[in-house]
Amino acid sequence: MKVLALAGGVGGAKLAGGLYHSLPPHSLAVLGNTADDFTLWGLHISPDLDTVMYTLAGLANPVTGWGLSGDTWVTLEAIRRLGGEGWFALGDQDIATHIRRTELLAQGMPLTEVTERLCVALGIQTRLLPMTNDDVHTEVDTPAGRLPFQEYFVRRQHRDDVHGIHFAGIENAVVPATVTDAIAAADVIFFCPSNPLVSIGPILAVPGLREQLREAKAPRIAVSPLIGGVALKGPADKMMHDLGFEATTLGIARLYTDLLDGLVIDTVDAELAPAIRDLGMQVLVTDTIMHDVADRNRLAQEMLQWSDELRPALAPMH
Ligand code: GDP
Ligand code: CA
User: Fold this and answer.
1) Which pLDDT tens digit goes with each residue over 3-17?
2) 230 Cα–ligand 1 center, Å
3) Residue 154 above 70 pLDDT?
4) Nearest atom (ligand 1) to Cα of 7
5) pLDDT by residue (tens digit) across 91-134?
6) Which ligand is nearest to the CA of 232?
7) C-alpha distances in Å from residue 246, one per residue of 241, 243, 253, 257, 282
8) All domains of the chain, ordered by start, with CATH?
9) Which whole number is the average pLDDT over 261-268?
């Protein structure tokens, strides 16, 4: 059984963690977003890849969902004292990840291989696959102008209205062979509950990747990141609203209509199920809020079981 999971940061990592614990070693591959990547203090930072990596390694800070549990802030304070950029919280141990990544990239190693090295070093028994090895940068159009993603998201705390989203460099980004192979090999493909516009959006925007997923033989199942029209964390609901999408689970279903065989929606959204089924996908209604590790594992297991039920019905269509 091979499982592929598309994941952004904190929301995606929770379900990826549940899948990782519910499957035999090396059965899971996680396809990660690199459009949040940026350079700070000369270091290459991959926030979404690191959130997934730390979660799978069992090292993630359980309160924030990002960063390392028990990390300290000595370097950040010292950088601030020296007049350096101090608005993005990097813990001391976290900084070691960025130093090591930057060092290996500078030696000419592609991000795919760098990420694999880091995951192996942390004892992770699954592949974490960057969506591309090429530089892609999300930029957000706001009333204050076009902002680099972390400027909008962290520094300005995603308060600005969003008039547009751009993935700079995406037209030249190439899908790595590791990703193409993982899509072809998958027995099921999950879209974790991540921001559809700035976490899953960039993954689907790598030229050719959306088509590969559309043509995949495996059942494709997403979990809605919106519950009762609200994001549990971050600006997914406001962004969708600002850009003219309906900020509900039905709006999520419409964004992915060409890609999904099934959508998992929360019990509070049960009344949307008929309208979502009318779009041509199956619906599973369950509790989708992952408060703790037990919730993650339970949701992952429900989804694996549901994918087994969907697979025979889909087979003749492929
Ligand atoms: P980021 O990159 O750290 O911002 O995280 P993601 O893009 O992966 O995830 C953000 C989305 O995850 C938000 O829209 C949240 O509503 C959603 N999310 C977070 N936790 C949960 C959860 O427990 N269940 C569900 N269904 N969605 C969640
Ligand atoms: Ca992110």
Assistant:
1) 999 999 999 999 999
2) 10
3) yes
4) 8
5) 999 999 999 999 999 999 999 999 999 999 999 999 999 999 99
6) 1
7) 6, 9, 10, 14, 20
8) 1-318 (3.40.50.10680)
9) 98
